Amino acid sequence: MTTLIEAEHLYRYYGKHCAVHDVSFTLSKGEVLGFLGPNGAGKTTTMQMLCGNLAPSAGQIKINGFDLLDQPRPAKQSLGYLPDTPPLYRELSVQEYLHYCAQLHGVPRHSIRQAVDKAKERCGLGDVADRLITNLSKGFQQRVGIAQAILHNPEIIILDEPTVGLDPIQIREIRELIRELGQDHGVILSTHILTEVQESCSHVQIIHQGRLILNETIAGLNRQMNTGTLRVATRLEPNVGVLLTLPGVTSIDKISEHQIKIHHSMTDNTVERIAETIIASGWGLQELTPVKQSMEDIFITLTQEPKQIDL
Amino acid sequence: MILAIAAREFKTLFLSPMAWTILAILQFILAFLFLSQVETFTMLQPKLTAIEGAPGLTDIVVTPLFGNAAIILLLATPLLTMRLICEERRNKTLSLLLSAPVSNGDIIIGKYLGTLGLLLLIILLTALMPLSLLAGGELDFGKLFANMLALLLLVSTFAAIGLFVSCLAGHPTVAALGTFGLLLVLWLIDWTTGIEDQRSELFEYLSLLRHFQNIQTGLISSADISYFLLVTGTFILLSIRRLDNDRLQK
Question: How far apart are the first and last CA of chain B?
Fold first, then answer.
């Protein structure tokens, strides 16, 4: 597989604040990489560095084999970027805008029309092509932004929160489009929505406070997901402190006085031990339900300090 | 690539009322001034015929017309240049240019040429007025050309300075005010030379007005031309540097 992006030891400081701390990763053709992280985690900063909008304080980025700093032109040739705010000239019509973007990205003159038509069709913009961008709804503006990023058929497509502001049907269409693009391009998308990563990505990276805390394939992730969540309801208020001391219990969320959520590891019969402890303590066990495992578990266990009670 | 950026910039100016308004107002004011100069000439004509080597039609009509156009453009250019980079940054459209395979130099020069296109149009429209005199008189084409060249060099400098301030400013209004202030200082810096014992050769050299008037008289010297080219080049380079700086720190 061809490596499209190689990022090595990226750092980015804003004054003294370190927004991105030692982030390294690679992206190959045919991969859809999801950047996952809470707001302010450094997702957008990382993407801006990949697209040459921001120079990293330290580290190296190679796009399609070209160093972004030494040979920005050929490197950017293979990039399509949708920033968190779509870069739209509101006084232009969709058609004019896409035409300009095609020129800007060096699409040969004779194939501009074809490229614009294809991008319009892929993003469902055929009916609004002659309308001014300023009069379009937010969802359509977002789609114009996506069209702009895929217009010149770049090897790498970087989308910063592509589904923001879209309705559920549009979101499904865009996810479909992303999966389709992922087959013969390299795609990076950032989001704070966990299901989005599960649905459209092949790889996932979790960023928290500027650090890369997880870099896995979705399959590998599911394989090694060894955490589970239990919903426990008791008649009397349980002693959270006692439960936390059990081996295998990572953290406990208190839902209400009689309901708690226990995040635990799947090894060492932790569930059995939790049940035994609750019964032995006489809190009156009324419900013990395993919650379906999701990315959320991983997200919570990775981004929270272990053994922390979230009240 | 540069041309694509320039063409879009030029077209965008005409998509908003801005370019039309400026063109209309400039044409109106200049036409008024032009007519009053023609009036002056027809009044003076009987006396002028009596004098040997008297100033001709071109001296009395064209030179003051272009002089006035320069002052009006001093006011108008900041309005044209204020949004160049500033608004792109505010609307976050700058990232489209920054992530496209174009260098910062291309972006700045493209935007500069786009604005210069409109200014060139203004100069041509201004030149049409004296040309209309050909219907009933004769013009000194050398001098007319010198005046057009002088105005062109002057507005290229205005535009370069405006572009640079637009790179610096956070809001278009601030950019317009800043450009206007800077241009006015460069225009007026020559005034100290009026007082004989306080002459400053440096200030005299820096003044836009003096170089402009030199060329206007028909004396096209390389010193004056290189002054304008140097100032233009410097501010374009500074703009490119400033845009580079955006990437390094925010």
Answer: 26
By the 8 A CB rule, do A115 and A152 touch? yes
- Here the ipTM equals 0.86
By CA distance, what is B250's nearest residue in A? A14
* Spatial CA neighbour of A303 closest among A251, A243, A242, A254: A251
Dihedral angle, C-alpha B4, B5, B7, B13, nearest 10 ° = 160
Is the Cβ pair B248, A55 closer than 8 Å?
A: yes
Interface test with A, best of B13, B99, B103 (most A CBs within 10 A): B99
- Give the tokens for residue A197: 């990563």
Q: Do B95 and A52 touch (CB under 8 A)?
A: no
Q: Residue B159: pLDDT band by 50, 70, 90 thresholds? A: very high
Residue of chain B whose Cα is closest to the Cα of A89: B93
Superfamily grouping for domain A3-223:
P-loop containing nucleotide triphosphate hydrolases (3.40.50.300)
B86 close to B96: Cβ distance less than 8 angstroms = no
What is the residue extent of each domain of chain A?
A: 3-223, 227-310
Tell me the pTM.
0.84
* Residue in A closest to B107 by C-alpha: A104
**Substitution target from A14, A53, A68 for chain B, most B beta carbons within 10 A:** A53
Cβ contact, residue pair A104, B97, below 8 Å? yes
**How many CA atoms are closer than 13 Å to the CA of B142, on its beta-carbon side?**
5
Instruction: Report d(CA A286, CA A275) in Å as an integer.
Output: 11
What residues make up the domain containing B210?
A: 2-248
User: pLDDT tens digit string along A144-200?
Assistant: 999 999 999 999 999 998 888 788 888 888 888 888 888 888 999 998 877 788 788
What is the CATH architecture assignment of A227-310?
2-Layer Sandwich (3.30)
Residues ≥6 apart with Cβ < 8 Å to A277? A242, A243, A246
Minimal Cβ distance to B250: which of A54, A92, A148: A54
